[in-house]
Amino acid sequence: MVIGVAWALVGSLLVYSTASWWGAEASSTDRRAATLLTLMAGTGTALVFPQARFWPVILTAILAVVAVVDRRHHIIPNRLTATALVWGVAVRLQEGRWLLSAILGMAIFLFYLTVHVVTHGGLGMGDVKLAGVLAFGLGYPAGLVSMVAGMWAAGIYALFLIAARRRGTGLMALGPFLAFGGFVGLLDLVH
Fold first, then answer.
1. Using CA atoms, how far apart are residues 16 and 10, in angstroms rounded to an integer?
2. Which of 57, 88, 123, 139 has its CA 20 to 30 A from that of 108?
3. pLDDT of residue 61
4. Cβ neighbours of residue 66 under 8 Å, at least 6 residues apart?
5. With 70 as the cut, is the pLDDT of residue 186 above it?
């Protein structure tokens, strides 16, 4: 448990120090928010699952940055998705089950791509790529759990916005919800 908390601290410091690399202009508020998210989620994972290794903190850090950047800029930079893919390959090397993970990742990617095409870009390609990468990295069933949790969270938030009659640009960043779903899937994978 102490080692897990130490990894969460290291992960949060890494998030803070790499803000210039994120691929979108990060304000000091963005940097602090992503750092705090990484520290809280990483520490929570370490406390709930003391046997967990360091690799959950890496995905937690990636997802925290994705959530903050996409919420503010409505973009998920390719370098963050590529980092998540490297994480996924490393996890598959450790956990195995390549074929099932690849099938799930491709199915989720194609589903989101179809939504992207049907909505004429209403769903961004960053979301499409990240969803496929997360599903692959988390594998089955955790990848499927992450997609369902993320979509439910996005749907509930959208209903809240409708009920509150909030007017705005009409754009809702899906990245934070994919990140939330990814974290839920990560908890399913770790236990």
1. 10
2. 57
3. 87
4. 76, 80, 84, 130, 175, 176, 178, 179
5. yes
How far apart (Å, rounded) are the C-alpha atoms in residues 89 and 68? Answer: 24
What would the 3-class secondary structure string for the chain be?
CHHHHHHHHHHHHHHHHCHHHCCCCCCHHHHHHHHHHHHHHHHHHHHHCCCCCCHHHHHHHHHHHHHHHHHHHCCCCHHHHHHHHHHHHHHHHHHCCHHHHHHHHHHHHHHHHHHHHHCCCCCCHHHHHHHHHHHHHHCCCHHHHHHHHHHHHHHHHHHHHHHHCCCCCCCCCCHHHHHHHHHHHHHHHHC
In this predicted model, what pLDDT tens digit does every residue of 135-178 receive, in sequence order?
Answer: 999 999 999 999 999 999 999 998 888 887 766 656 788 999 99
Instruction: Report d(CA 106, CA 180) in Å as an integer.
Output: 20
How many other β-carbons are positioned within 10 Å of the β-carbon of residue 74?
Answer: 16
Length of the chain: 191
